[in-house]
Amino acid sequence: MHQIALIGAGRIGTVHAESIAAHPRLRLACVADALPDAAGRLARHHGVPAVDVETALSMPGIYGVVIASPTPTHVDLMLAAARRGHTVFCEKPVDLDLARARAAAEMLDTMGARVLIGFNRRFDPHFAALRSRLADNALGAVEAVHIVSHDPAPPPIAYVETSGGLFSDMVIHDFDMARWLMDAPFTGVFAQAACLIDPAIGAAGDVDTARTILTTADGRMCTISSSRRSGYGYDQRIEVFGERGLIRAGNIARTSVEEWSADGCRSAPIQTFFLDRYADAYRHEIAHFADMLEGAAPLIDHHDGVAALALAEAARRSMASGRMEPV
Fold first, then answer.
1. What are the GFO/IDH/MocA-like oxidoreductase domain coordinates in residue numbering (predicted)?
2. Is residue 249 situated within a structural domain?
3. Same domain for 135 and 161?
4. Residues 104 and 210 grouped into a single domain
5. pTM of structure
């Protein structure tokens, strides 16, 4: 079994700890966090030691490092882990500063580092099946992509204040999905955004509602609808249009039961929490990391992380300028 050091004992770190512990080829070896109490709680739950970061990176027998700490620590931890020869799985985004992320990517390349970036939606079975149909040329040439990503409700304002903003924190998942589905580089970004849901988000210097258009050099487009509040559940839909029609992946209901009567159809509401909607994706993501530890190439690496961050930066510039901005 491959021994894994986990850095970060917050919500997403807890998810990864459970996935590691459940995987037959992996063993959680230790947990580190800047908050010792958080590390201690998660470590005790899994029966492993809570250690500091330096100890986690240098512990004998460690084969892989999972980084689920706050975004500003990602670059330094990736580089430190790579210098020790570890295979690295790092949560998104790579960083909040594009220049710093690009410089880190060059250093990781120089070291020959093996890095997986945590864009978990590529591992969702529904979206992966959609992508497989595109790869099989089911639509012919892809002409347009439409992505809807609306959260059920805004996150706590303390989270918003340190998140890096809507585009880098939330929409960055959709930027990565757009690149994956279109399979061509985007050259321009036009974004409009506003604070329509929670005035506290605006007071923190952020927005909560956005519409973004990404364009390729040959004029193909992806539109992204983003909102911190849907009012009806965790709305995650993708539609891809091509020369032979449409392929779509819809929302996932809590159950598949439907009740039909003279008044029409009643069905279960859609899921309301990202950890429920993407539970399979997180498990498949860790399974891919296990494959990487045995030689597989990463499906999403640090260059993908930089490319998504570049789209987020262009979206912020466009929101400020009111113009289409180059990537």
1. 127-247
2. yes
3. yes
4. no
5. 0.96
